[in-house]
């Protein structure tokens, strides 16, 4: 009876996994936010442990389909889960604000004040013909809801507990890896729809006009999950899934020829091996060596060619720091110079602030292309300090988690992966305006939840 019950459970889990992957496929093909949202919510009520898989896959789907405005899958999911989390919190009579969520609340207050600062004193208002509604909308539709959702997601994770979060992450590692295979295949099928010729030297491939830098960097941050399967999984099937997923993801990133995406990928690989290889040296060394050998073989047989990527980094068109950073260093310098006028509170919470500064300096409307410079420009030194305070708090939990794993106080290495993904997002943010990227705030909530629950779990086990 037990064996039959176990087989039935595995079969049901397999059907649920197939349903998840079917939703991803139809989302890419039909690009209908309402249908995809409805199917994801149905799946969630069938299997609550798919929560993180559902939340984290939607941003990459929308990046591929160039969905940034109007009704989107992510917005619908955030609205639904906001009310669902509130329902659970009220039902459980749980405390929403604790020491960790308090930091997020402080940042929320800064963002709200940044909105007031923008519509009251923003010098960039003339640039947009005093369109107050546009600034208010970007705050109330995007900025403020993201922080509120992060607080609620963190609170919900704490309510559900250690085992729920661990199981969510285990499902996520497998499901996101297979989803990334589907996304990569979709990439190869649609790759001919859009490509750009860079200085007659290299062809940059992308999804129907989608930004290759965002695409490559998001893939890099999620590629840590299949890499985890390769390095840590004990089942052959999961290792094979990880290998296929990693190979397709890395090749997809390579085809975009994104400098930022390439550097982000390298950062994620180095950090992942550094964190995960301590108690798994043999497998890590084998995987790394095999990867290098395979790349060498592919290069030798001219299956892949790194010369276009080399040209992107070191070619004749790269002659100073501005050309190397594709003018980003110019925009960063303009932002740093401008903030001297309003160092404490910044110019106001709107992406128009950075565009106004660059327009004033260079006559061109560009965002700052840096998460950190954007925060500095919009919310001043105070805003940047509070944001970095959130990250330092998370890094402290990351360090403690690594120590607990090394001492044998904790055995679930899957808890390390959200931290590596978050740090990858933050690295990508050095050259991308990712201050309100959904994936970034989702990982912030998850990491805060991991820090709280692993600490509580160890305390309970020591009693």
From TrEMBL:
UniProt EC number: 2.4.1.-
Pfam families associated with the record: Wzy_C
InterPro entries: O-antigen_ligase-rel_domated, WaaL-like
Keyword set includes Thylakoid: no
Enzyme class: transferase
Protein name from the UniProt record: O-Antigen ligase
Species this chain originates from: Defluviitoga tunisiensis
PANTHER family given in the database record: LIPOPOLYSACCHARIDE BIOSYNTHESIS PROTEIN PA4999-RELATED (PTHR37422:SF13), TEICHURONIC ACID BIOSYNTHESIS PROTEIN TUAE (PTHR37422)
């Amino acid at each position: 009876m037990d064996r039959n019950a176990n087989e039935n459970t595995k079969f049901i889990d397999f059907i649920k996994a197939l349903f998840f992957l079917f939703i991803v496929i139809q989302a890419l093909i039909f690009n209908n936010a309402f249908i995809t949202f409805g199917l994801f919510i149905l799946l969630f009520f069938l299997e609550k442990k798919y929560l993180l898989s559902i939340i984290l896959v939607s941003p990459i789907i929308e990046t591929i389909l160039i969905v940034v405005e109007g009704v989107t899958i992510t917005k619908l999911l955030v609205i639904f889960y906001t009310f669902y989390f509130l329902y659970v919190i009220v039902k459980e009579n749980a405390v929403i604000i604790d020491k960790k969520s308090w930091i997020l609340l402080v940042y929320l207050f800064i963002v709200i004040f940044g909105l007031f600062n923008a519509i009251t004193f923003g010098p960039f208002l003339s640039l947009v013909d005093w369109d107050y509604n546009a600034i208010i909308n970007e705050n109330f539709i995007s900025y403020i809801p993201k922080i509120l959702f992060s607080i609620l997601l963190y609170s919900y994770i704490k309510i559900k507990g250690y085992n729920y979060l661990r199981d969510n992450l285990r499902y996520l590692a497998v499901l996101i890896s297979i989803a990334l295979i589907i996304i990569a295949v979709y990439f190869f099928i649609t790759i001919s729809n859009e490509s750009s010729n860079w200085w007659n030297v290299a062809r940059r491939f992308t999804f129907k006009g989608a930004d290759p830098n965002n695409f490559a960097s998001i893939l890099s941050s999620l590629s840590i999950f299949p890499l985890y399967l390769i390095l840590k999984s004990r089942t052959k099937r999961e290792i094979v899934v990880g290998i296929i997923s990693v190979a397709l993801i890395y090749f997809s990133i390579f085809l975009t020829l994104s400098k930022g995406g390439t550097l982000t990928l390298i950062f994620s690989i180095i950090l992942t091996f550094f964190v995960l290889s301590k108690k798994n040296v043999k497998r890590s060394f084998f995987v790394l060596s095999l990867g290098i050998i395979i790349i060498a073989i592919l290069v030798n047989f001219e299956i892949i060619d790194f010369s276009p990527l080399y040209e992107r980094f070191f070619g004749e068109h790269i002659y100073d720091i501005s050309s190397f950073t594709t003018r980003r260093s110019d925009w960063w310098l303009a932002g740093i110079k401008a903030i001297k006028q309003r160092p404490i509170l910044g110019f106001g919470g709107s992406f128009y602030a950075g565009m106004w500064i660059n327009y004033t300096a260079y006559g061109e409307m560009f965002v700052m292309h840096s998460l950190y410079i954007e925060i500095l420009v919009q919310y001043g030194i105070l805003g940047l300090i509070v944001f970095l305070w959130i990250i330092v708090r998370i890094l402290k939990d990351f360090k403690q988690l690594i120590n607990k794993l090394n001492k044998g106080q904790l055995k679930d290495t899957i808890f390390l992966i959200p931290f590596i993904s978050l740090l990858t997002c933050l690295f990508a943010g050095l050259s991308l305006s990712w201050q309100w990227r959904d994936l970034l705030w989702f990982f912030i909530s998850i990491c805060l939840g991991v820090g709280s629950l692993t600490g509580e779990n160890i305390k309970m086990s020591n009693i």
